Amino acid sequence: METNFECPICSEEFNKNLRVPLVLLCGHTVCKKCVNELYNVKKSIICPLDRKTDSRQISQISFSYTILELIDKVTFMSSKIKILSLPPEQRVLAIKSSIQEKIEKISEQASKIQEKVEEYISMKNTVLDKIDSAFRELYLKLDIRQQELKDEVEEQIQDILSKFKNCEKTLNSMREDTENELNNLNNIQSNVNENIFCYNLPEVPDVNAKIKFTENSESLVESIQDFGMIRNIVTVVPFNCEHFTNVTYWMIPPCCNQYYCCNKCHDKKESHTWIYANKMVCAYCEVEQDYRKLPNNCEFCGNYHKGVISRN
Questions:
Q1: pLDDT recorded at residue 238
Q2: d(Cα 93, Cα 86) in Å, to the nearest integer?
Q3: Which residue of 37, 38, 86, 162 has the fewest C-beta atoms within 10 A of its own C-beta?
């Protein structure tokens, strides 16, 4: 049985190998071999039947699947008709031979598939081995790095602990030095407080912050009397002496030019007779000024000076 599926250029029958039928833009079907020859000459395809140009590349031209299916069907029917036209005995042999050929083809295809499968399995095993080796190497590096980090952290912790211990020693030493200095200051304050002649003055934590009137302060007082004021007198206003309360000033008698809370304090300390004071020092602003009769306001700071109250 003739198929009559031929290429119009080379007159060869179409097949699934070199002469695959290709459909041009004009609609005519030409085998792939002829299309290659036409394209290699002019880099374009001119249909020899109607002279129309197809500028597509060969890979863009589609197959004629209809012709391929018809070829398969005609070939199959031809083989059947050929077998059926044989005598019964030959027909059986032909059928067996056809089946055997199909089995051989299937076996050949299965063998190729098996080879591919084995190749893929081998490739898979190779890849898995490489992955496994890479993971083992990575785990080993991670373990080494983890140990290095542990050692670094441990070293840093030891260094920090050592620094803390050194800081603790330094702080203890500073605390001891501070305690010694405080003890020295307390001793100095105690010695100074014993010489204060103004009674009931509060304790002062820093003996160097203020100037105290003591028995040895005459030279200091004399050196600053010319300026008409006394600064940094340590006291709390009002303060109290042993004879009067509510005292807010010092009196300066001309007999000795010393500073006293009252005449009784003067008489207790001095051997000469009290002469009534003509100067005074405000305990608020510590400015020396003319003595005025109480009660009055300070001429400089304006604070009010009440009259003193006797303790008797």
A1: 60
A2: 10
A3: 162
